[in-house]
Design brief:
1 helix, 8 strands, mainly beta, single chain, eight-stranded antiparallel beta sheet, Factor Xa Inhibitor
Length: 141
């Protein structure tokens, strides 16, 4: 069964709870859309012994990123965490959570964060988070 994307959410954190040590997750507000991008390079291993006319390949390095956009709510705590990290060049811990509750978490650098303020419409943001290392998938049991 397919899911409507409304329950796919982006969270960010820069601090842990002082008692439990667990991250304090803050939802990024005003979200409209988000994409968890995952890709892997391929390494060509074709030799003279490869099947006639076909290339052979192995899996290479992987990478991930998140693209998102939404309404810009200047007082939103999640957007303020992103703003501070961007201005200071700091890594964030981010979470992309699915409607079923599965979570993809990892460290990322906010590489693109435009704010668009048209004359005749709402103020919006878009962002690109480039993953640093491998994300962790936490599945709902």
């Amino acid at each position: 069964m397919s899911k409507i994307g409304i329950d796919f959410l982006l969270y960010a954190t820069v601090e842990n709870d002082s008692e439990t040590g667990e991250p304090i997750w803050v939802k990024v507000g005003g979200q409209r859309g988000a994409t968890l991008n995952r890709s892997r390079e391929t390494i060509e291993t074709t030799t003279k012994d490869s099947p006639q006319g076909f290339r052979e390949k192995e899996a290479g390095l992987a990478e991930w990123s998140i693209d998102a956009d939404g309404l810009f709510l200047e007082t939103d705590e999640g957007l303020q965490i992103l703003e501070d990290a961007f201005m200071n060049g700091e890594k964030l811990k981010v979470r992309f959570q699915t409607a079923a509750g599965n979570k993809y978490e990892g460290f990322a650098i906010l590489t693109d964060y435009p704010i668009e303020a048209p004359y005749d419409g709402e103020v919006t943001y878009s962002l690109t988070l480039e993953g640093d290392g491998a994300p962790t998938k936490i599945s709902v049991v």
